[in-house]
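Supplementary Note 3. Input sequence used for the single-chain structure prediction.
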Amino acid sequence: MNRLIPMLFCTLALFVSACRQESSPAATPTATSATPAKPETLSADTPRTTVDGNGFVGPAGWTIETRGPAVILTPPEGGSHIALVDVAAKNADAAVAQAWKAYDAKARWPLKLATDRPARDGWEQIRGYQYETSANDQRGVGATALRRGERWTVAIYDMANAVGDKRSAQVRLIFDRLLPKGYSRESFAGKTAHKLDAARLEQLRQFVENARQQLEVPGVAIGIVQDGKVLFADGFGVREQGKPDKVDGDTAFMIASNTKAMTTLMLAKLVEQGKFDWDTPVTQLLPDFRLGDADTTRQVLVKHLICACTGLPRQDMEWLFQSEGSTPESVMKTLATMQPTSRFGELFQYSNPMAAAAGFAGGHVMYPDREYGAAYDAAMQSLVFDPLGMASTTFDYDAAMRGEHAMPHGLDVDGKTVRASMDLNYTIVPARPAGAAWSSVNDVLKYVQMELANGLLPDGKRYIAEAPLLERRKQQVALGNDASYGMGLMVDRTWGIPVVHHGGDMLGFHSDMLWLPEHNVGAVILTNSDPGVYIRGPFQRRLLEVLFDGKPEAAENVEASVKRLKEGIAAERKRLTAPADATSSGKLAARYHSAELGDIDVSRKGAATWFDFGGWESEAASRSNDDGSTSFVTVSPGVDGFEFVVADKDGKRSLVLRDAQHEYAFAEAK
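The predicted structure, written as discrete structure tokens, is reproduced below.
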């Protein structure tokens, strides 16, 4: 989807090591064993080594074998591979060339972009490679060259999109602990966090402001709490580019998927009240709850609605493209079209419609006579926002935008920061438990303080019992080696200590909230531009550096992200024709229709070609693909990256849109 974030709301960067520089890696495997020459299917996640003895973890169910200098890992679906190849070479480019010969000498993917990355994890040099694939290939191909001494380990990612998406957490499992032989990582386990005095807070303030300027984000707000006291709650920059109003601790931003944790807090309150428990079948609460698979429907308990563990893949296109006239009830009906692609509890697969169902289930139990959306809103207000004193937090867009609020920004086709339309952000309203809340740093800090206090309010009164509150943090499904997903919350032990957090992504709004339960420290960061997604990971890292005197990596991570972002936009821009090629555009129909996603109206505004999807629209650039096909790609700020491939056949005009695991056909309509 958007070139900055592969899918909306996604809080995890799982492709090879492309984003590992933005967060510190996990702990070293406790043991490793040599990888067999003959193919072996792993019965469990298993520490193994490359030919040179560098450690990694092989995922359960994958086949592993050694071919010369290459260790090849193949998922159960076949046809996709990760290769770890050890070679001696004079530089990264030569190492990658050797690795491809060892893995697949016939591979001929055109190189799209090669970028240097900060040295991390004991590797003395790292360089990443992206390869050009056409939409019809339905494949992702990349490589990372890592040097230790005179030897290189090259990690090749060559996977079908559907497989890579479904098994993203297992891919992360492999790369989380790809470490040089004998290397031990930095860990903060057993250390005492420093008190965040004025000097240390100034280090955080300077880091955020420098990152904001480097990434040209108009506005950022952050909040810091330690030992029950708010130490900092303020903003940097402006609410809207070109206008003077400053961001501060009361500025409202869309907090997107951070809403999920607050939704499960509402459910926890209902569990505490005895309305149901975490193991209650959902069909007992919502008789019309249906998934596309009857067996999965029967298995879904309350705790599974927002666990990303049911095997249902991300399926956001329906609510993004059917926003006009969409309601909470229609979102619930969409669930009946969703089919699992992995076994129940087997793999992390993020589902916004399921998260929406979680909120609507809780609201319906509390207010059974009200419409799903109204019942959810009332339940959140009475059980979460009012008791915590979150006076400015709301699902009412009009109310939020009448007050002090930030506006969204994105990048135009040439990478320039500009104001983005709010239109796409309204599409989440019918599925609002998944991510439609507006809030401020001051309000979200009140939530974080309650989490750190294990259910107590600042005045010492108990808001919620510990048991239902903490149940939300327990692992429901793994996210690689050292992170797990619970109920709308992630717990990351990457640095040897638990960091509980969740992020949020909507058009022009990217955020994170996090807390360290063992050290009584929490933080919130809210941003109002798409490149803000590149601040939040380093912000978390910088907080830990300041607390524990960690290695200074965060600032360099931001610098590398800026460079990679600019180079990536430039590489993509070379392939795009904007305005769209007039000849190709002239062959388009005036209207297309998809049974699943509705209509596209095609129009011209001067030389530009525009696609109107009903609730929102975008200019479309054209691209001639290597396989001879033509694509039209949305390029308006914030909604860039939706790719429609021309699929005309037998005189009938049609377009195809894909996400990682689904394909949607649009036929010419009258």
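The CA atoms of residues 579 and 607 lie 6 Å apart. Confidence is low (pLDDT under 50) at residues 1-32.
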